[in-house]
Specification:
The complex is a heterodimer of chains A (121) and B (109). By secondary structure, chain A is mainly β. Chain A has no helices and eleven strands. The chains are: A mainly beta (121), B mainly beta (109). The A-B interface holds A 44-47, 50, 58, 60-61, 94, 96, 100-109, 111-114 and B 30-34, 36, 42-46, 49-50, 53, 55, 87, 89, 91, 95-103.
Chain lengths: 121, 109
C-alpha cells in the first residue's frame, strides 16, 4: 500500500525559501504523477503543481515564478521549493498522488498527512 | 481561471438526513469534477471522481451527478462519520490549473 510522508522545516523566515520533501513508500514514484497542494489555516485548498518521474512539470500560474517541484527517483521522493515566502504562504502542505480518468480528468486519490509550514521572523 | 462556487458554505443536518451539496463552475467543465471529504486535522479524502464515479472503498450512500457547470454531491442517509467539510475540484483547465471550491462544512444539528 502506497504511503506518502511530507517532511521539512516547520518555520521559515520571510523572503527565504521553503523546502519540503515527500517520501513515497510501498510503491514506485515512477508509477504516477505527483502533486503538491496547500491549505492555509482555516481556509480552502490550493493546487501548487505536479510532476511526473520524467521531470515533466506543470505549475499553478499564480505561483509559477516562485515554485520548483523536482523528483529523485533513486530515493523515491519528490520535493517542493517555494522562494521569497511571505506570511501568505503559511499553510499545511500536502503531497498527493495524481491520477487521471478518461478525458483526462485529474484527481488526487492518495494524500500524505500534510506538514504545517509557518512563515514568520 | 475557472472559479468553483459551492453552496451552501455550511449546513446543519441530522443523522439519517438526505443532504445535497452543490458546486457551480464559472464555465463548462464537462464532467471533469471531483469531490473530497476532509475531517479536522486530516488530509482530504477522494469520494467521487469524474462527477459521478464512486472511488473504491467509499460507501454507496455518497453519489455525485451533473455535467457542464452544475454538479451535486448527495449523501443519502447521513452517518455520524460524515460530518466534515466537503470540497469540489475541477480539472478541465488547459494548461492545467486545478481549482477547488471554497468548501461546505456539514455540521450536526
Amino acid at each position: 500500500q502506497v504511503q506518502l510522508q511530507e517532511s521539512g522545516p516547520g518555520l521559515v523566515k520571510p523572503s527565504e525559501t521553503l523546502s519540503l520533501t515527500c517520501s513515497v513508500s510501498g510503491g514506485s514514484i515512477r508509477s504516477y504523477y505527483w502533486s503538491w497542494i496547500r491549505q492555509p489555516p482555516g481556509k480552502g485548498l490550493e493546487w501548487i503543481g505536479y510532476i511526473y518521474y520524467s521531470g515533466s512539470t506543470n505549475y499553478n500560474p499564480s505561483l509559477k515564478s516562485r515554485v520548483t517541484i523536482s523528483v529523485d527517483t533513486s530515493k523515491n521522493q519528490l520535493s517542493l521549493r517555494l522562494s521569497s515566502v511571505t506570511a501568505a504562504d503559511t499553510a499545511v502542505y500536502y503531497c498527493a498522488q495524481a491520477t487521471y480518468s478518461y478525458g483526462p480528468n485529474w484527481y488526487f486519490d492518495l494524500w500524505g498527512r500534510g506538514t504545517l509550514v509557518t512563515v514568520s521572523s | 481561471d475557472i472559479q468553483m462556487t459551492q453552496s451552501p458554505s455550511s449546513l446543519s443536518a441530522s443523522v439519517g438526513d438526505r443532504v445535497t451539496i452543490t458546486c457551480r463552475a464559472s464555465q463548462s467543465i464537462s464532467s471533469y469534477l471531483n469531490w473530497y471529504q476532509q475531517k479536522p486535522g486530516k488530509a482530504p479524502k477522494l469520494l467521487i471522481y469524474a462527477a459521478s464515479s464512486l472511488q473504491s472503498g467509499v460507501p454507496s450512500r455518497f453519489s455525485g451527478s451533473g455535467s457542464g457547470t452544475d454538479f451535486t454531491l448527495t449523501i443519502s442517509s447521513l452517518q455520524p462519520e460524515d460530518f466534515a467539510t466537503y470540497y469540489c475540484q475541477q480539472s478541465y483547465s488547459s494548461p492545467p490549473m486545478y481549482t477547488f471550491g471554497q468548501g461546505t462544512k456539514l455540521e450536526i444539528k
